[in-house]
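I would like you to sit down with the pair of lines that follows and say whether tokens and residues agree.
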Amino acid sequence: MTDKSTPDTAAPRAKPAAKGKTREDRLKAALKANMAKRKAQAKARSADTAD
């Protein structure tokens, strides 16, 4: 029951390079979206103070 050397636990580590690439792409997209959101917020704040 507590044996951790079963094939089921080793299966997710089959392709670390491909998984790492998708993680990198996902993080890159999230960062891009976050930066766009922050830029829009800053623009809205500056427009509010300019009026």
User: Anything to note?
Assistant: Residues 2 and 19 are 27 Å apart (CA to CA). DSSP finds two helices and no strands in the chain. Residues 22-51 form one domain. The chain has a mean pLDDT of 81.
